Amino acid sequence: MGFTENPSMELCVQLKVCEGCGCLWYRSQTQGTVYCKECEIKLKDFPSPETRKRRGRPSRKTLVKVWAVAEFVGGAA
Asked: How many CA atoms lie within 13 Å of 45's alpha carbon, on the beta-carbon side?
């Protein structure tokens, strides 16, 4: 082996608190999960927040958009 230096490997991690159980765990900086491995297994059958329907009152359409459409059509002068 022609290595003159001691080969090393670096991995950047973040210390996170699991949003499911509250335990501390490490995740790589490229990973975007918020649950530890145990909670991921427990919660894998639940819908993700991105696919879940939002509850509550639907968002209001602003008047700016309505006026922009009216101007585009030629109704507002």
From this structure: 1
